[in-house]
Design brief:
Structural class: alpha+beta
Number of strands: 30
Distance between the termini: 81 Å
Largest sheet: 8 strands, mixed, barrel
Helix content: 40-55%
Shape: elongated
Strand content: 15-25%
């Protein structure tokens, strides 16, 4: 993890006291250089003046030398000062003095010896600034010239003086040369030490930087040669930390050593923390600035570490995570050696009072003897121990989660976290997960768990487990009539009655209007039958809803272990199957019967046959005509698949669609039906009778992202526009996954295909959902059409009005009587289909229907011929079964 850099504080940007003086490599070099720079001219002057006074004769040369000596001394002092200030080229001026002395000797040979004394100063300067090599060369040249002059004038005293001068010059070169080498060596050692430490060292004053080492480029990304002023050196300082410069100037003006701590932005954009130690040397003269020496250190890692430590410390202090450090005393008893402030909430004592207490005394409500033994092993370097959430034995309800881990030094740390809210929330969530939110009864997953427990607990053959499944009749009408709030009240009341009837049995609500009771023990099947009878009686007791007495009835299915099933899942499936059989039967209580089960051997054999039928082409399409009830014209046909079974004959969809779902071949079935339907529609178009064909899409087809591309591909192969296709889905399939369904249907509708919602009214789609769907028509479920002459007329009217209000076409299916047709026309229904108009026929017969009259007469006449009901449609006849 990367911790953010801490912000500067007063301690970061203010002096922390004068730097303590120490003797170091830097001090030694500085002392040596100071001696050479400040005292060298005095030594040179002495070499010049003292011998001059000793050798001057009392002749007129005396006044010449007295006049010449100050000039030479002054000249040499000026050169020395210029060199000290960094004017390196000024050292060559000493050669000018040397040439002047030689020239003077040539003009005045009697001044040879005094001139050579003066040349000693020049030899010293050459050695000091240019090195021994140039100094020796100058000395040899001087000896040659001066020796030549002495020999030419036959001056024996000058010859002796030349040898004496040679000795003096050699000594001068040796002394100053050694001093130079010592200084250079110490400077090199100093540089190596500094470079080895990776420090930035600079010198200058408050405005100028006279020298800085190469490490500044690694620290700030600025080359050393690019820094000549303190402004160059200070430019990378973070804008928020530039106030340290004001403090720096104040301290330099006061001649105080100090330190600065600030952030600097590297040339690559990264930010670093720097610590700068500054020594101030007071200026020798008032008009000269104070000299400054600085050392810059990168302390980024230290600051980040301090920041992380501070962050973790703040975290431990701020959150409710208590921590104690424990260790063994001399008697091997665990004692508390430290505790953070948060521990006060886990003990009746203050954190300070916990220190030195035994662990058993400090937390008597938390730790028993076994736990203390475990913690003792942790303190001895054992494994991490976690405990909890565990309930604290104190007033109220409180849970604590603990974790103990070993530390260095044979001690251990224990962290404590308040887990009360988590534990209570977990308990509440567990209850909600296993119980119905409306009635508070166990839900379906809970029933499965209870069944498994009951089956595992069966001790012998006399014990049984029966599952009683209960489904209310006409509960949807209660919701539609009185509203969902009253429907919920009804379910709550029936749950209470069922709980009283079931007594000690497990009573649950499985969802919607379905309930279940688990009866286990000896003679469970007999007690389940008695319970079912009791349930029917208590459900018949009227319930007052909005001042109306409402009676409820139910369908009950019963399955028993081990007679009907040997596991919980199968037992629930078979009890549910028995309940569905009860809904179809006049007897409201049904037991599981194996012959009614689709999972019987004959059903399995039929499933194998169906898988072969899809690939062998045994499926054929039939088409049922659809008429416009206003104009009487034939406007389309709905595709209804049939299976021509080799043994069982022609099978309707209801007999094998469930097999398609069970085998996972719905996609293959849909593709085969769609391909045949589109091929038939293409043939009708070529015959001059273009008519849209309707195909049904299952819920699984809507969830297949390939459905749209497959249908459009089939249309392209048949050279048909998408307007020749109408897709039909059930309302329930739409509600299973409205988002995916909307996406698929929108893609088809965008290409020109129409979309129809089948079995409308049997689901619970909302008005807002219908407005968002890309649909063209609603198809009223045949159950409502069959009851038109009774109680469902108002419901059908509502559906028709709703469809028209949404701009949709409304189609009624399964129209079988003239009375139903008359009512639908009166209600304004747009289209219709059913046995009254014609039953589904193969493609060839439907093609003949297209070429005949396609007008529905305004009034139909029914008559019976040879035992069949004949429906007259203009000039053609369609025979419908009774």
């Amino acid at each position: 993890m990367s911790a953010s850099l801490p912000q500067p504080t007063a301690a970061h940007s203010r002096a922390s006291g004068s730097l303590r003086p120490t003797t170091s490599v830097s001090d030694s070099v500085r002392i040596t250089r100071s001696w050479v720079n400040e005292n060298g001219w005095r030594a040179i002057g002495a070499l010049l003046i003292v011998p001059t006074l000793m050798y001057l004769p009392l002749a007129r040369a005396r006044w010449t030398m007295i006049a010449l000596a100050p000039l030479v001394v002054t000249f040499n002092l000026v050169v020395n000062r210029l060199v000290n200030r960094g004017k390196r080229g000024a050292a060559w001026f000493s050669l000018v003095g040397f040439a002047t002395m030689v020239f003077a000797s040539l003009l005045a040979p009697h001044l040879l010896v005094p001139t050579m004394v003066l040349l000693t100063a020049d030899i010293a300067f050459v050695t000091r600034w240019l090195g021994r090599k140039y100094a020796i060369a100058a000395m040899v040249l001087t000896l040659a010239l001066m020796g030549g002059i002495a020999f030419a004038h036959h001056d024996p005293s000058a010859t002796g003086g030349i040898f004496l001068w040679a000795f003096s010059a050699a000594c001068t070169i040796g002394i100053i040369g050694d001093a130079n080498e010592a200084g250079a060596k110490m400077a090199t050692q100093y540089t190596r030490v500094i470079d080895g430490l990776g420090l930035v060292v600079w010198e200058g004053d408050v405005d100028l930087v006279t020298s800085i080492n190469i490490h500044v480029e690694g620290l700030l990304g600025i080359p050393a040669e690019a820094i000549s002023t303190t402004a160059d050196l200070r430019r990378p300082i973070h804008p928020d930390d530039r106030h340290v410069l004001d403090f720096h100037r104040e301290q330099v003006a006061a001649n105080h050593d100090h330190e600065l701590q600030y952030r600097a932005v590297h040339a690559d954009g990264s930010t670093r923390w720097l610590l700068e130690l500054i020594r101030v040397k007071q200026a020798g003269q008032e008009d000269n600035p104070a000299q400054v020496q600085g050392v810059i250190i990168d302390v980024t890692e230290r600051m980040e570490a301090e920041n992380r430590v501070a962050m973790y410390a703040n975290l431990v202090e701020s959150v409710g995570l208590g921590m104690v450090i424990i260790g063994h005393d001399e008697d091997r008893v665990l004692r508390v050696s430290a505790a953070n402030p948060a521990m006060g909430s886990f003990s009746t004592r203050d954190p300070e009072q916990l220190v030195n207490l035994t662990l058993a005394d400090a937390f008597s409500e938390l730790f028993d003897e076994s736990m203390i033994r475990s913690l003792s092993a942790v303190a001895d370097g054992g494994e991490i121990v976690e405990l909890g959430p565990t309930r604290v034995q104190a007033e109220g309800v409180r849970y604590v989660r603990l974790r103990a881990f070993p530390l260095a030094g044979r001690v251990a740390a224990i962290t404590m976290e308040d887990a009360t809210a988590f534990q209570l929330a977990s308990a509440a969530l567990s209850y909600q997960t296993n119980h119905d939110a409306l009635t508070g009864l166990p839900n379906r997953p809970n029933v499965v768990q209870r069944l498994n427990e009951a089956l595992e607990a069966v001790p012998n053959d006399r014990h049984e487990v029966s599952l009683v499944m209960i489904d209310l009749d006409h509960f949807r009408q209660v919701n539609d009539t009185f509203g969902h709030h009253e429907g919920d009240r009804l379910l709550i009341e029936l749950g209470r009655r069922l709980k009283r009837a079931g007594r000690s049995d497990v009573v649950a609500r499985l969802g919607g209007d379905e309930f279940a009771v688990v009866v286990s023990g000896v003679n469970a099947a007999i007690r389940a039958d008695a319970l079912a009878e009791t349930v029917l009686e208590v459900f018949l007791e009227s319930i007052v809803i909005q001042d109306i007495n409402v009676q409820t009835t139910a369908a009950i299915g019963i399955a028993t272990f081990p007679t009907d099933a040997t596991d919980a899942t199968t037992l629930m499936q078979r009890a549910e199957l028995a309940m569905y059989q009860a809904k179809k039967s006049a007897d409201r209580i049904m037991h599981y019967v194996a012959s009614d089960d689709d999972s019987s051997p004959s059903r399995i054999a039929l499933l194998a046959d169906f898988q072969h039928a899809v690939n062998a082409g045994e499926l054929t399409n039939h088409y049922q005509p659809i008429f416009d009830l206003g104009t009487g014209k034939l406007v389309g046909g709905e595709t209804l698949v049939r299976w021509q079974h080799p043994d069982h004959g022609l099978l309707a969809p209801a007999q094998f669609l469930a097999l398609a779902e069970q085998s996972g071949m719905v996609g293959s079935l849909t593709e085969a039906v769609a391909a045949a339907a589109i091929a038939d529609a293409a043939r009708w178009h070529r015959q001059g009778t273009p008519l849209p064909v309707t195909i049904n899409l299952s819920a699984r087809s809507l969830q297949d992202h390939r459905t749209t591309s497959q249908l459009l591909h089939l249309l392209d192969l048949a050279d048909l526009p998408a307007t020749a296709l109408r897709v039909e889905i059930t309302e329930q399939a739409l509600l299973d996954d409205p988002i995916t369904a909307t996406k698929v249907l929108s893609q088809l509708r965008a290409q020109g295909a129409e979309v129809s919602i089948d079995d409308f009214g049997t689901g619970y789609s909302s008005l807002s959902l219908l407005r968002q769907l890309p649909i063209d028509e609603l198809k009223i479920d045949g159950l409502f059409v069959a009851g038109l002459c009774n109680q469902d007329a108002m419901l059908v009217r509502s559906i028709i009005d709703l469809g028209h209000a949404l701009g949709l076409r409304v189609v009624a299916e399964r129209i079988e009587t003239q009375e139903e047709l008359d009512v639908l026309i009166g209600l304004g229904c747009d289209r219709g289909q059913g046995f009254l108009f014609g039953q589904p026929v193969p493609a060839d017969e439907f093609a003949n229907l297209l070429t005949s009259s396609t007008t529905l007469p305004p009034r139909q006449t029914l008559r019976t011929t040879d035992g069949a009901t004949v429906t007259q449609l203009s000039s053609r006849r369609v025979v419908a079964p009774r």
